[in-house]
Amino acid sequence: MQTEKEETRKSYKQRLALKSSLAKETISEFLGTFIMIVLGCGSVAQAILSRGHFGGVVTTNVGFAMAVVMAIYVTGGVSGGHINPAVSFAMCVFGRMKWSKFPFYVGAQFLGAFVGAATLFGIYYDGLMSFAGGKLLIVGENATAQIFATYPAPYLSLGNAFADQVVATMFLLLIVFAIFDSRNFGVPKGLEPIVIGLLIIVISSSLGLNSGCAMNPARDLSPRLFTALAGWGFEVFT
After folding, report:
1. Whole-number CA gyration radius for the chain
2. What stretches pass through the bilayer (predicted)?
3. How much is the pLDDT for 227?
4. Which of 211, 186, 192, 159 is CA-nearest to residue 87?
5. Is the pLDDT of residue 208 over 70?
6. Whole-angstrom Cα distance, residue 162 to residue 210?
């Protein structure tokens, strides 16, 4: 009797188990990006909605970096924890991932970021509604759009913004590849996500003034699209 029950449990597990490795990797990237947005943008939301009483530049930089660390720990063993289309693209360019997987990874990342933004909006809905008298603003002292996406400083030109993003993303990819390069000094196995978190803190602390270090297209575009649909309007793209 016990054997029959065990066999039944096994059969249920086998039916529910994903057999496709690509499906597992796709879900992994969705989940990782979702975690990053909810926890990372959540640190920004807490700072803005409390008007600095529950956070500031330091907490948002560290909070977002640690959100990335947690996301990589959750997904690294399944999909590598890319959670960034730029990382997935670089992996394909250097032959570390098949190009056939690229659209699945990127699609999952963009979708995970969108769902993460929607989840965070729901969590902080009352706070957002009370912050500016029910108005969802993009600019001004009561602006809340920057909780979800990055925005350039008023002085920043288009050319300077482009250069800013290229340099920040270059440093991100260069050092991430160095971290995982076995021919380099290397990082103790299992500590790579923490070192990546430290890297993000360094980049955001040194190159974040101009436009908030938008080094991840999924992290910026999907939440921006969500805000456009949720009430801030399509001015978030201007």
Report:
1. 20
2. 30-49, 61-81, 102-125, 161-179, 191-209
3. 98
4. 192
5. yes
6. 11
